[in-house]
Structures are given as structure tokens and as C-alpha cells.
Amino acid sequence: MLDVVVAGAGPTGLACGIELKKRGLNALLIDKGCVVNSLYHYPTNMVFFTTPELLEIGGIPMTSLNEKPNRTEALKYYRRVADHFALDIHQYEKVLRIGGDDGSFTVHTSDRLGCPREYECRKVILATGYYDIPNKLDVPGAELDKVIHYYKEPHPFFGLDVAVIGGKNSAAIAALELYWAGARVTLIHRRESLSDNIKYWIRPNIENRLKSGEIKGYLNSSVRRILPDSLVIGTPDGEVTIRNDFVLAMVGYRPDFDFLSRHGIELDPATMKPRTNPETLESERKGIYLAGVVVAGVHTNEIFIENGRFHGAAIAEAIGRAIG
């Protein structure tokens, strides 16, 4: 029997695996994608807002060519860390269900070939993140294939009419890269101004493009209908219809609340934050611990790699005491 199964092999899941191993506990990490799957799906040219040392886990130094690391450097770093600690990681395997009770759980999964698997363990850590479930647009046409929730790079949109919905970092960066790559870009945001949290080196660039009209902006506006070749926008001056080939809905993501609820994790109705012991991060379902951004409920901007990485030590210490 395993001591612990960790659902999720992102930076927080890796940190949990490392801390468990340091304490002599036998842990298996399972991820439905690749190692640090969310980071892999970030935009190709993404630069982190933070400095390298704040992304470090396991005491392994991280270096970057510039002051702030980029996506490629982060992927390389986390691969190196996983290899250094020889973590037992099953990639492309989805956790379907967790049965049993504290001290004797059964984790049911499906591997990349669709074969069912079961793992017996004493404790479970859920470090599943939030990037896998995008917030959907609640408007007619939101189900069309032209609506995309993950922006990777601008090349496929050259010469096309693209609407970017949102007013935070991801929307601003996508709009700029699309414009530079030759797309005709429209930025739509429901508030009167863009987010105050846009990176300081991005803000003047996007604001200047909007002011000059190089990127068409509709602020204090929202999408009303999405049609195969156009978009209907509700603006302060009434509805406007624009030509449109693709919609990039950069309106955020959320944890899998349904999965948590199905497994006895109590959620606060207002914030959807799971109820956990603040010191051990054990949930109200005894023996199941929560780590990383999943702890924050709908307030996903409260926990990042920088602070989520410390959850591993607190949980591993608690599990070590419980198992003895």
C-alpha cells in the first residue's frame, strides 16, 4: 500500500511529492496531462511576473537568462527537479474516483489507453489546480468551435478578425501578440478600464494601441451573441455587430468544484473555498488534503506557485505525524 497518492503533478504537486519523499513516505503522483501540464499550455512566449527564486521547489536553484524566467525555462526547471528527486509520476492518467476512508483509500483512475487502474493508499493530496476548466461565456453561440479559451500563439490568426474578451494580463498579452502578427484585433471588456494588475511593461503598450485605434476597444461592453461570421456586442451606445472569425475568451478558469463536492469536500457557498484545517490543509473528509490554488475557491488570484509551493511541507509534516 502507498502512503500517499497526489492528484496533480504541477509545481505544487511536485513540491508535495518532494516533501513526502524527504520524510521517507512512499508517494505516487498522478496527472491527467504531462508534468506541469498547466505551464505547458501557457502561451509559448509567456514571461513570468515573478523572479526565478520564487518558483523554486525542493531547494533546487532556478536560473534564467533574464530577470524573469519564461515558460521554456520553467518547463526545463520542473523536469529537472522531478528527475533529481526521482519522483514516481504517472502522466496522462486521470483520477476518476476516490473510495474508502482515512488510512485505506482506493484511488480509481484511467490511463492514456483507457485502461482502469486502482491504487491503495493511506492518504490523498488533491493538487489539481484550476487551469483545466475555463469559465464559459453564457451567451448564444458560446459553443461554436470558433470560441477558444486557451491562447497559445498568434500565427494561426494572421489576417483574420479576432475578438479578445477580457481585461487582465492574459487578454492584454494575447491582443498585443495577435496585433503584431497581423490579425485584426478587437478587445472587449465588461469594465470601464483594464485591470490595475496588468504587468507594468504591458499596460502602456496595450493602452497606446487602444488609444490609436490599432486595436479596436469596447470597454464597459459585453458580448451578446456569437455568430459564425460575426459578433454582437452590447455597448453603452447600444448593440454593435462586427465581423469576426475567432473569439478568444480570456475570462479565467476555475477548480473542478464538482469533483471536490462528489468526494465529500465541503465548499463555502459564497467563495467556493474548501473547508480545511489552516495548519495542515486537511479537508473535512479526513485523510484528504488540499494543496495549491484549489484551496482558494473562486479567488484563484490569491494563490500562485510562489505561495502554493509551501503547502507541500505543511501537508507532508502533518501526514508524517499521522502515519507515524
Measured between the Cα atoms of the first and last residue, the distance is 15 Å
Estimate the strand proportion: 25-35%
Low-confidence stretches: none
The CATH superfamily of the largest domain is FAD/NAD(P)-binding domain
Q: What is the CATH architecture descriptor of the largest domain? A: 3-Layer(bba) Sandwich
* CATH domain class name of the largest domain: Alpha Beta
- Number of separate helices: 8
**Averaging pLDDT over every residue, what do you get?**
94
Helix content: 10-25%
* CATH fold annotation of the largest domain: FAD/NAD(P)-binding domain
Total domain count: 2
Choose one word for the global shape: globular
Q: What would you report as the Rg, rounded to the nearest angstrom?
A: 21 Å
What structural class do helix, strand and pairing data support? alpha/beta
Task: State the order of secondary-structure elements, H for helix, E for strand.
Answer: EHEHHEEEEEEEHEHEEEEEEHEHH
* Biggest sheet statistics: 7 strands, mixed
Number of strands: 17
In words, what does this structure look like?
With 324 residues, this protein is α/β, with parallel strands linked by helices. It folds into two domains: 202 residues, FAD/NAD(P)-binding domain (3-Layer(bba) Sandwich); 114 residues, 3-Layer(bba) Sandwich (FAD/NAD(P)-binding domain), CATH 3.50.50.60. The protein is built from eight helices and 17 strands. Strands 1, 2, 3, 4, 5, 6 and 17 form a seven-stranded mixed β-sheet that branches. Strands 8-15-9-10-11 form a five-stranded parallel β-sheet, with helices on one face. Strand 12 and strand 13 form a beta hairpin. It is globular, with a radius of gyration of 21 Å. The model has no long low-confidence stretch (mean pLDDT 94).
